[in-house]
């Protein structure tokens, strides 16, 4: 497993990845073909200030059963891309490009088709469990509602499946929890319920949008372990969206780094952190406080802010802030290319080998 | 126990002998903060003890980091120190005066030296005020300086925190980014030239790069102005970055407190170890810590905490004694206090204290 | 109807990427502005005609009409809305009657805003026994059915426009006080107010510098909606004969008077009703539009 010694490596050694769960309907992705194939995705919002280019040509693939992390700061376009995959963008958004899920094109689909696609094929877990759960509905009801939206199950069967789901997310006393309300649970437990709802119809893709950001670090570890375990069990592909590089390094197989609406680096986790190439990624890595560092050391950090998304200038969008920027960086935008095996980057002057720190 | 210039914890002397620390800027003694929960109709529903018998010292020029998760009481602790609202029991001795018993008028002069920076900069700044007005407000409240002098002071402060006064002075918070807004909040906290600043998760809501910038700002101000900080955060790595000493809290109680390097290198409380083990590491080839200390279970309800040691329901080392008797904070090694009946490497520390007379190698 | 999973889960667009991009497209902003601009324009027009028009154009007097000219239908020459049973020009009665409605509405809202707002803010900020006493007193007023209370006050004070204003204020003051108190309670614990208290700013500075400005959008939109209610109540008072005294015209009285002639000349009732309706609708729309524009909850 690409030399990763983190929690991921330990778990995957024990289980087999990609085995489809039992009783799943729908077209199976052919082995070798990607489950999700995003190609040149562009999203524009028309706002008071003009047109905002939130996503400017993003391409990536997700294989069945694999874990991808999308890293970026606010405004990088990571959440918008995820919303686009699920068809959750507001009507003010103009989406172009291609999003193929198991061969079916999602861009331009009707709302009805998108609704069938959501929950059945792909589901999302959001950051705030408080806002994802209806506080006036019992937990069990929320799960059965999700189940029966897509699967033709009767009430009793729906109930049974809901309890089974709660057990699968390791919620203690699932039969009792079925009848409880969200406010009776802690944050970590609520997030487990949200995961249970998301997995209700055994989607083949699960997107976790900062799903553990609002949780304590110990709870975060538990939830991430849970997600990995479920992934191995059900063969679900997982896309983690986060600003937390350390989290991505520990739990993801492949990492995408986004900046100003574009993918700027993409590699297997170990390669990305072991031999980082994009100056932006390096800046992110340098800016994280790490337990290994001595206290009171000033963190190496670059100044400036991400660019205004309503104007697309020539040249690399990171150039104004890049410590390694040169003439050609301002003039021509570097394309995202696979310069090394399994490692893409978009930079004219990437960090050399052994430069990563 | 020898006293060394940095990291010396005279609180050790305090809890055992009861005498006041020599140069402690802030002494918190047996602080208790409770909230009464009301059911429908205002009937008393239950009492939540958010902070439970917490004591520590903070010396001039040092940064004490307070780390804890949800329900640990760290934010409540900060609020109690600034008396907003005042704690139910205990003492908060700031520069020799007990703030809890201080009358209103005297408290006003104390507030000059004790300021706070909050977590969400957009909620800690009045959305309708301009940046200059926000930073000037404390000066007006204390009637300091003439108009011109105030304006000059605000200008130099905005410069100090890295905001150009000419372009930012007239802006409103919603025209600022998170990092910029937090700088304004820091400038406001500095305008009265305080001695101690309480920082309640000041960078948690900021992006990675901005967070690093603001942390560097905190460090720079500390070095330039000789400030002391009480720095509260849930991110262990972040706390290590800025602190001289660190205190770990769980469910309203202090688990351990000591010099920062020692705590991270060799945690003595099982909860501290569990926290350290839960941190995701960005370096895939980093050595893993010893396993067997991964935390399980859920946080108990703060309304009804476990008897004895509050951490015992999730502690892999818990035994009968832990349920029967609440562990007290006691000195274990040089400058370190731990509240645990079975601290980690107790054998090692007892050897160390025994061998200290001979070798004296256990530095800070 | 079953709610699709992701929709049941998805909260409002989160802060960050999407919100940072701005939620309103050009079309939406235009709609929002129209929601405010159109009712505002209609109201402005009404105000103009009621207050300014009679000063520049010789509108027939609203009282003292000749019985010979009574009962004229709509669109009669010289009397665009016709005349009533005693020969008064309906159009001018509408205009002068409208003055009453607008004056009363404005006065009642201003009194409510100032007095009620002040009481509510003080109650909310100080808490404790002061708050308890103030709110209980106001609760007594709210507990009465509004019309009954207003009728009682007018009855004891006597009929006049001013007394109608006092009577209706007894209703608007507690309403504003409640809103102000709720807003104050919410604002009082906001970090920026706590920060101000920590800077030892004086209480009145905090109240008028921080708390009041931040609740003004809410109070202003409420006052517009309240104005609509006030006009209706005033109309009801007049309809019942307890409002402004004869012979001054008002929309409510016109409706009351026209009841008996409903089958013969329905325009006597319909015309003032339409004006009443349009005014109140515009006030409501304006209030809602501003609320949406300012993001008041």
Derived structural class of chain B: alpha/beta
Major sheet of chain B: order of its strands?
Answer: 6-7-8-3-9-10-12-11
Helix content of chain B: 25-40%
Oligomer: heterotrimer
Radius of gyration of chain A: 21 Å
**Radius of gyration of chain B, rounded?**
21 Å
* Series of H and E elements of chain A: HEEEHEEHEHHHHHEHEHEEHHHEE
- Share of helical residues of chain A: 25-40%
User: What are the low-pLDDT stretches of chain B, counting only 5+ consecutive residues below 50?
Assistant: 1-21, 287-293, 347-364
Q: In sequence order, what are the helices and strands of chain B, one letter per element?
A: HEEEHEEHEHHHHHEHEHEEHHHEEH
Number of strands of chain A: 12
- Terminal-residue CA separation of chain B: 13 Å
Provide the descriptors you would attach to this structure in a database record.
heterotrimer, A: 357 residues, alpha/beta, 8-stranded mixed sheet, 4-stranded antiparallel sheet, 33% helix, disordered N terminus, C: 297 residues, mainly alpha, 72% helix, elongated
């Amino acid at each position: 497993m690409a030399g990763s010694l983190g929690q991921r490596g330990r778990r995957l050694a024990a289980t087999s990845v990609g085995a489809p769960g039992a009783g799943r309907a729908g077209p199976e992705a052919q082995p070798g073909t990607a489950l999700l194939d995003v190609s040149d995705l562009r999203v524009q919002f028309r706002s008071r200030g003009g047109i905002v280019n939130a996503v400017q040509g993003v391409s990536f693939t997700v294989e069945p059963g694999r874990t991808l992390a999308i890293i970026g700061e606010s405004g990088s376009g990571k959440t918008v891309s995820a919303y686009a995959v699920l068809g959750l963008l507001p009507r003010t958004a103009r989406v172009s490009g291609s999003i193929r899920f198991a061969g079916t094109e999602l861009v331009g689909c009707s709302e009805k088709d998108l609704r069938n696609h959501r929950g059945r094929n792909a589901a999302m877990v959001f950051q705030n469990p408080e806002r994802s759960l209806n506080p006036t509905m019992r937990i069990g009801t929320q799960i059965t509602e999700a189940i029966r939206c897509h699967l033709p199950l009767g009430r009793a069967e729906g109930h049974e499946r809901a309890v089974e789901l709660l057990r699968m997310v390791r919620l203690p006393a699932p039969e009792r929890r079925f009848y409880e309300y969200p406010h009776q649970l802690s944050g970590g437990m609520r997030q487990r319920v949200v995961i249970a709802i998301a997995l209700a119809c055994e989607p083949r893709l699960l997107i976790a949008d900062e799903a553990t950001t609002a949780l304590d670090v110990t709870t975060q570890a538990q939830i991430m372990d849970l997600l990995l375990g479920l992934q191995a069990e059900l063969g679900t592909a997982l896309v983690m969206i986060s600003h937390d590089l350390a989290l991505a390094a520990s739990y993801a197989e492949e990492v995408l780094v986004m900046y100003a609406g574009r993918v700027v680096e993409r590699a297997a986790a170990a390669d990305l952190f072991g031999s980082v190439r994009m100056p932006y990624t390096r800046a992110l890595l340098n800016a994280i406080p790490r337990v290994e560092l001595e206290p009171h050391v000033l963190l190496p950090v670059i100044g400036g802010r991400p660019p205004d998304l309503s104007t697309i200038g020539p040249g690399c969008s990171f150039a104004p802030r890049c410590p390694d920027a040169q003439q050609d960086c301002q003039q021509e935008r570097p394309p995202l290319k696979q310069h090394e095996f399994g490692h893409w980057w978009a930079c004219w002057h990437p960090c050399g080998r052994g430069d990563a720190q | 126990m020898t006293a060394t210039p940095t990291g010396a914890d005279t609180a050790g002397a305090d809890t055992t002998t009861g005498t006041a620390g020599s140069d402690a800027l802030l002494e918190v003694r047996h602080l208790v903060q409770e909230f009464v929960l009301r059911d429908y109709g205002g009937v008393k529903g239950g009492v939540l003890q958010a902070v439970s018998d917490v004591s520590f010292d903070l010396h001039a020029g040092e940064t004490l980091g307070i780390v804890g998760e949800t329900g640990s009481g760290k934010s409540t602790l900060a609020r109690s120190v600034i008396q907003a609202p005042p704690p139910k029991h205990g003492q908060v001795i700031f520069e020799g005066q007990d703030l809890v018993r201080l009358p209103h008028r005297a408290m006003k002069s104390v507030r000059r030296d004790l300021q706070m920076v909050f977590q969400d900069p957009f909620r800690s700044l009045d959305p309708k005020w301009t940046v200059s007005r926000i930073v000037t407000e404390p000066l007006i409240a204390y009637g300091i300086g003439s108009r011109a002098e105030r304006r000059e002071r605000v200008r130099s402060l905005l410069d100090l925190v890295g905001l150009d006064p000419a372009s930012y002075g007239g802006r409103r918070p919603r025209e600022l980014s998170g990092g910029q807004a937090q700088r304004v909040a820091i400038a406001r906290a500095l305008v009265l030239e305080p001695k101690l600043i309480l920082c309640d998760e000041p960078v948690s809501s900021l992006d990675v790069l901005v967070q690093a910038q603001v942390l560097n700002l905190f460090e720079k101000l500390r070095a330039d102005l000789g400030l002391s900080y009480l720095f509260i955060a849930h991110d262990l790595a972040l706390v290590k970055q800025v602190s001289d000493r660190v205190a770990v809290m769980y469910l309203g109680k202090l688990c351990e407190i000591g010099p920062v390097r020692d705590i991270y290198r060799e945690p003595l409380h099982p909860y501290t170890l569990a926290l350290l083990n839960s941190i995701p590491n960005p370096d895939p080839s980093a050595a893993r810590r010893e396993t067997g200390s991964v935390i399980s279970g859920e946080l108990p309800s703060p309304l009804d905490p476990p008897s004895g040691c509050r951490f015992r329901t999730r502690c892999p080392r818990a035994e009968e004694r832990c349920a029967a008797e609440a562990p007290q904070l006691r000195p274990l090694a040089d400058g370190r206090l731990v509240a645990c009946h079975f601290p980690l490497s107790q054998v090692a520390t007892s050897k160390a204290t025994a061998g200290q007379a001979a070798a004296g190698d256990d530095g800070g | 109807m079953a709610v699709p999973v992701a929709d049941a889960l998805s909260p409002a667009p989160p802060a960050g990427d999407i919100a940072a991009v701005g939620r309103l497209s050009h079309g939406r902003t235009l709609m929002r502005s129209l929601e405010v601009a159109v009712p505002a324009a209609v109201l402005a027009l009404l105000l103009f005609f009621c207050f300014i028009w009679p000063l520049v154009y010789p509108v027939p007097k609203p009282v003292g009409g000749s019985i010979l000219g009574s009962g004229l239908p709509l669109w009669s020459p010289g009397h665009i809305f016709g005349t009533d049973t005693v020969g008064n020009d309906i159009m001018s009665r509408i205009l002068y009657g409208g003055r009453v409605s607008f004056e009363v509405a404005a006065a009642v809202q201003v009194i409510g805003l100032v007095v009620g707002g002040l009481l509510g803010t003080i109650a909310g900020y100080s808490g404790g026994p002061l708050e308890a006493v103030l709110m209980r007193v106001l609760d007594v007023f709210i507990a009465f059915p509004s019309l009954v209370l207003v009728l009682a006050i007018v009855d004891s004070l006597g009929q006049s426009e001013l007394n109608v204003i006092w009577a209706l204020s007894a209703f608007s003051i507690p309403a504003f006080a409640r809103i102000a108190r709720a807003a104050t309670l919410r604002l009082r614990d906001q970090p920026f107010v706590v920060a101000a208290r920590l800077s030892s700013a004086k209480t009145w500075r905090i109240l008028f510098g921080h708390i009041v400005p931040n609740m003004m959008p809410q109070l202003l939109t409420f006052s517009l909606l309240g104005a609509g209610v006030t006009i209706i109540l005033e109309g009801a008072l007049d309809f019942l004969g307890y409002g402004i005294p004869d012979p001054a015209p008002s929309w409510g009285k016109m409706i009351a008077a026209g009841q008996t002639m409903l089958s013969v000349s329905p325009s006597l009732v319909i015309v003032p009703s339409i004006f009443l309706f349009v005014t109140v609708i515009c006030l409501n729309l304006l209030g809602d539009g501003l609320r949406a524009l300012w993001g008041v909850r």
